[in-house]
Amino acid sequence: MIFDRPVIYGTSYKGKLYIGKHIGSGRDYVGSGVLITRIIKKGNENDLITGVIEYVDDKEKLNEREKYWIAKLKPELNLTDGGDGAGYGDKNPNANPEVRLKKSLKLKGRRTWDNRGDKNPSRRPEVKLKLSKALKGRRTWDNRGDNHPMRRPEVAKKVSEKTRGVKKTFPIGYIHHTKTLEYKKKMSIMRKGVPMPQNRGINNPNCKDPSKLYILFINNRNRYMVRVPSHKIKSFKNIKEAMIYRDKIVGIN
After folding, report:
1. At a CB cut-off of 8 Å and minimum separation 6, what does 62 contact?
2. Is the dihedral of CA 168, 171, 173, 176 positive or negative?
3. 218, CA 20 to 30 Å: which among 12, 78, 112, 167?
4. What average pLDDT does the chain have?
5. CA atoms within a 13 Å half-sphere pointing along the CA-CB vector of 91
6. Spatial separation of the C-alpha atoms in residues 218 and 215, rounded to whole Å
7. Cβ–Cβ contacts within 10 Å for residue 50, how many?
8. What is the model's pLDDT at position 85?
9. What is the C-alpha separation between 142 and 153, in angstroms, rounded?
10. Which domains, from first to last, does the chain contain?
């Protein structure tokens, strides 16, 4: 309910009453008590009915009037005598031993869970039975070891038929470059601290066309990338623009 002036309001839930105060900020409000908050978190906010008990001319009197109505109507959903409101540190109502005792007595007998270890609800036989019925007929896998689906002959055969004729990523007999003797020798030299030959630029044996040195064409972007050591990479749509930029940096003609 929207309150546009200081008010003492009442919120009912399944025949039980909660009384609170509000300064009237013009916002939709049903209450912020512990039990009201739990009801809202459970998704039962639509079952709350809020109404005005008394409008108060002076908001300084809200605490006094809240105490009066709680004492008179004795609402079941209030855990304190009212008049305290929210606070921090020593001002928090929960710091008061009397308030804590009253809340403890009000909440006594309510069903709560400690979900650790054997107290987890799923360990209870009736909950296990309910879950078992709910999951009955659902196909689940334990994919470890011999239980992996590919270990089943019918699945392996189906996958084999699906992938038959598909070109493999690497041809038979392919050896990765890290497994070649040349690469192993190169890495051995590096580990011994011997400086590697500088194959950048013109010295790079992969550079077939010196005029396109440091220039790389990227197909998926349809652009020419200029990559010069110790310089920022730039891209160009035109090869001439890329060459001009490259020449400006390294002075190659």
Report:
1. 6, 8, 21, 22, 23, 56
2. negative
3. 167
4. 77
5. 6
6. 10
7. 19
8. 58
9. 17
10. 7-107 (3.40.1440.10), 201-250 (no CATH)
